[in-house]
Amino acid sequence: MNSTTSGPAYEGLMTTHMFINGRTVPGEGEPVTVYNPSSGDIARTFPGASPDQFRQAIASAREAADKGDWAAMKQTDRVAILRRFLGELAARSEAMKSLIVLETGAPVNSFVIEAQVGSPLRQMEAMLELYLKLPEIEENPLPLEERINPFGGFVQSIRRYLPVGVVAAISAYNFPLHISLWKVVTALATGNCVVLRPSPLTPLSTLALSSAAAAVGLPAGVLHILAEAGPEGALLMTTDPAVNMVSFTGSTEVGSKVAGQAAPSMKRLQLELGGKSAQIFLPDRVEAAFTAAIGVCLAHAGQGCVLGTRIYVPEAEKPGVLAAMKASLAHAKIGDSSDPATTMGPVISAAQVERCERYVKLAVEAGATVVAGGKRPDRPGFFFEPTLLDVTDNRNPAVQEEIFGPVVAVIGYRDIDHAVEMANDSPLGLSGYVHGKDARQALDVARRIRSGTVNVNAFLGSAYASSGGHKMSGIGRERGVEGIRAFQDVQVMNLGSAV
To answer: Does residue 356 carry a catalytic annotation?
Structure first.
């Protein structure tokens, strides 16, 4: 059944049906309950997909992949269909924004909304352009002496890029459309068939993709979208031998389980997992450090895996930085995500509020001081105050573990070597930031940071620049050439002339 919560902006876009084999069908499984995090009220309740429906979707995708019509289509023809698909989504972008505000709690007037809808649509267009520039066949650079075979004939060695087959795409809750599009459009462009499972916390904007897929005539069996309340369908997606690849975005804890589930059938893996990114402010740029805390907290209430939640500043400058940060956080306006005046919305759930509370408590027990925030405000919904921690020990739980909320820790360093040492003292390595006026020094420091991405006085989200984690932050890359090739298998063909 559905609750009565609705809104004119997304009324025509809202669907609670699954998309299986080219048709929208009601779920047959346990109910999925979606909350409005700004109020804590139920936004929608609907039947999720059953395990049998996940099996149907996987089997349909396998059949379509084996039949090969989609993979055999010309690159330009597949891209043309996907461009129409993106065009349909662009035409629905305002309604999509309203839906995302409802289910994610991203403030309607914040820069986060652009990252939720407009940015991924533009980046996907750019990704399709990049894909068309990549060759389907490349020559291996054999030395001259290896180009003549023992029988006196000539040999040429080439590598072909082929679709992996069936891709299981499992998305995260914080940027549901953005993350889903990166997986789906890239996988489809490269000729694969996809089964997509959104987070049960924010499934509505992902289920809405089905209307665009149907409108452009995407062939049956090529794309399936199923939401569920529990993990049963996801377990099938990561274990069924009919699936060739799993692309997962989420926590390191769950990602390690996905890897284990995929291992017996040797599935290709693309895992973007947890992050605990460091921001190092060099002495010549420390005056800008006061913006770091508000930057994290206003970025979807700190619910971003690449956010720089560990902030390193010179020890002598730390008191002044903390005071300036505290003053900046006082300007954050916490409120309902649909209110245009709101600058910081809620976190996704009551459980996430409790997680923030728990880590602040652990941080204080380990010697940290709460400079600002540190608790839930007295209002309905899933809110947590923007929180600033003064930390003296780099092993503090608030520094070492991903919280995924509006909580930042400031740590003082003695010298540059000390800053780099602490920044690298983490099991995670997704992203990092170095701020400095002396570009050469900043670059030298950045080269010492062990993370999949390092931003020097900049931040870039581009279809042409890949992202991915080092250490426990994941396997493989998304975006860029590497992100496209991740959805392809390489086949080497050695061709000789007959003699």
So the answer is: no
For position 10, what pLDDT does the model report?
67
How high is the pLDDT of residue 1? 35
Structural contact between residues 169 and 151, judged by C-beta atoms closer than 8 angstroms? no
Q: Which of 135, 151, 94, 137 is nearest to 117 (CA)?
A: 94
Q: Are 118 and 455 in contact (CB under 8 A)?
A: no
Q: For 273-322, what is each residue's pLDDT tens digit? A: 999 999 999 999 999 999 999 999 999 999 999 999 999 999 999 999 99
> Is 163 a residue whose pLDDT tops 50?
yes
Which is nearest to 106 in space by CA: 347, 291, 379, 384?
347
The answer to whether the beta carbons of residues 497 and 154 sit under 8 Å apart is yes
Annotated domain spans of the chain:
18-273+474-492, 278-462
Clarify whether 193 is annotated catalytic.
no
What tokens appear for 23 in the block?
């048709």
Fold of 18-273+474-492: Aldehyde Dehydrogenase; Chain A, domain 1 (3.40.605)
Say how far apart CA 292 and CA 157 lie, in whole Å: 51
484 CB contacts (<8 Å, ≥6 apart)?
Answer: 127, 130, 131, 134, 186, 189, 190
Distance CA 363, CA 148 (A): 67
Catalytic pick among 193, 228, 297, 305:
305
Amino acid at 482: E
Q: Is domain 278-462 given the CATH code 3.30.360.10 in the classification? A: no
For the segment 390-446, what is each residue's pLDDT rounded down to a tens digit? Answer: 999 999 999 999 999 999 999 999 999 999 999 999 999 999 999 999 999 999 999
The whole-angstrom separation of Cα 243 and Cα 317 is 53
Residue at 112: amino acid letter: V
- Residue 301 gets which letter from DSSP? G
**3-state SS assignment for residue 10:** coil
Catalytic residue among 103, 228, 272, 385: 272
Helix H segments across 40-110? 51-67, 69-72, 75-91, 93-104
- Give the tens place of pLDDT for each residue, 325-378: 999 999 999 999 999 999 999 999 999 999 999 999 999 999 999 999 999 999
